[in-house]
Amino acid sequence: PGEPINDMMLETSTAVDPALMEEVRTGLQQQPKRLSSRFFYDAEGSRIFQAIMHVPDYYLTRSEYEVLDTCKASLLELFAPDDRPFELVELGAGDGLKTKLLLDHFSRERADFTYVPVDISADALDGLVADVSQQWPDLQLRPRHDDYFNALDQLSEESDARRVVLFLGSNVGNFSPDEAVGFYQQLHDRLQPGDLVLTGFDLQKHPAIIHAAYNDREGLTRDFNLNLLRRINRDLNADFDLSAFSHYETYSPETGEARSYLVSEKAQTVQIGSLDMTVPFQYGEIIHTEISRKFTRHQIEQLAERTGFSLAGWFTDASAYFADVVFER
Ligand code: AVJ
């Protein structure tokens, strides 16, 4: 008796990121097709990235760890020259290891600081907070579940401790040159004179080393890229055949850009159910997914200069693969 239950009504409603819908709608209609790497990081994508950080070909994480480990004392000296309190504001909740290395050193040295991890993902933040408060029960911890710039806006109202902003892991490499300038200008607007920004920059080096980092023998970079199609299948009810797409990587030593593509291995048509969209692919047609930019010292100095910062510290690993650079407002 009563109304028959409609199949649709039984589907659990999962919250789909509206930005992902917009990205797929517009990106797959462009020529060439594109989908931004900022949608790589669903639960599975974050797991794959964690694994990438441990593969031998992906030198970035190891190199930055070496930089921070060898330079942690000099960094603390720069952050708190006269033992004044500071706020360590980390943009992106951090992968743990590298940040923990700093937290550990600063705690041992009894530095007076508050750790303020900022992330738009509640999951990433919750995990980090649980972990950090367990390892350092006495650490002052003030997590922010927010957009980077909102979080920085609020900080200025809350305290007059010196701010030290961490932007590690070569995340800056995903910006276009204009976006990078915009990003540091926005930081400049929100910081006070004397505040600091520590950024991890991957440096230009032998092109084969960089190419291998994004074309690893374990195939994790491929999985990382293909996972975006898996996510779209799940979140937007699409029917990408993952076995009919491959991963293709280029590195140009002239531009310093590593670029990732997904390539259609046959002529095919994909349905995106939730968007009522049909997407044709030719054999060999690409979807551009990511740019990971590599810098020269000169470019980094120019970036500081153009956005009103001065260069207060330059730290690299023994091979000079990676630089952690301190800008002062
Ligand atoms: C997290 C953006 C720094 O570009 O090196 C790793 C992401 N992409 N392998 C990078 C990534 C492919 C990574 N960042």
TrEMBL record:
Sorted keywords for this record are: Methyltransferase, Transferase
Q: Where is the Histidine-specific methyltransferase SAM-dependent domain?
A: 21-328
Pfam families per the record? Answer: Methyltransf_33 (PF10017)
Q: What is this protein called?
A: Dimethylhistidine N-methyltransferase
UniProt signal peptide: none
Please tell me whether the keyword Glycoprotein is annotated for this protein.
no
Top-rank taxon, per record:
Bacteria
Q: Does the keyword Methyltransferase apply?
A: yes
Q: Source species, please?
A: Spirosoma utsteinense
